[in-house]
Fold this sequence. Notes:
Residues 7-188 form the NAD(P)-binding domain. By secondary structure, this protein is an alpha/beta fold.
Amino acid sequence: MTILVTGASGNVGRHVVRGLVGAGQRVRAMTHSRGAEALPRGVEAVRADFADPATFGAALEGVERVYLFSGATAAFVDRARSAGVGRFVVHSAIAAGFPDDDDPDDTGLSPLRRHLALKREEHRAVERLAEASGAEWTHVRMGLLAVGALGWAAPIRAGEPVRGPYAGAGEPLVHEADVAEVAVAALLTDDHIGAAHALTGPAKVTQAEQVDAIGRATGRAATYEEIPPDQARKEWYDPANGMDHEVIDWILDLQAASSNGPGVIAPTTTYEQLTGRPPRTFTQWALDHTNDFR
Length: 294
């Protein structure tokens, strides 16, 4: 059996590839122009793009199951089915399971509510493609990934404090390896067909706690320096790199919502129910990524 992993060079996709290789599967990794050099030995790399149907043939020939990354198109799913794909495991987000009370086109929503509505529809769109395809499907809906903390690597490497608002803000961040483990099980066994798995870390971990955990893991002094939200708004503004006012507004809303409470995402017990083990902690994530901060 050949399994295609789309988004194979991403934070989760690379772990899916490794997990499948470790299980003795034939793996084809679909990437864009970079990332193929980091694939494990024996993995077939193919350059393909959801937006370019001319690239689908090489990616899908002989494939029976697909790890379907966000951004997948109806044309790709249709071609996959025609090529003989019988199962999709969808790389999704926990927002896909949120109530559909908000219209993402409603500009009167708060920045955070509009962002969550947009994410819900973005990921549900891919889920619906899999559900309507006639193939077996599983949705792996991840919460916020711990890898977001890599954005602090530069100041921590330089021995500088991490500056930001709301030191007490946080969510139950999920280790990418936990997400990949469930995805691999869904690709290889029949135990998850028709399921939508919502995965988070075990508990809320604040921004200050994250920085402290990284410092302990690396043996470096690492501190979180809290600054006012308005100061963060000025320092973060960088529209050339996607940090415009709209993005900054929903990030600040998200942090404010979790600063004095549980946060937008409640911890789930899904991983433990599926594996019999508690999910990896942020402390474990920091230990696994020490080289990224040195």
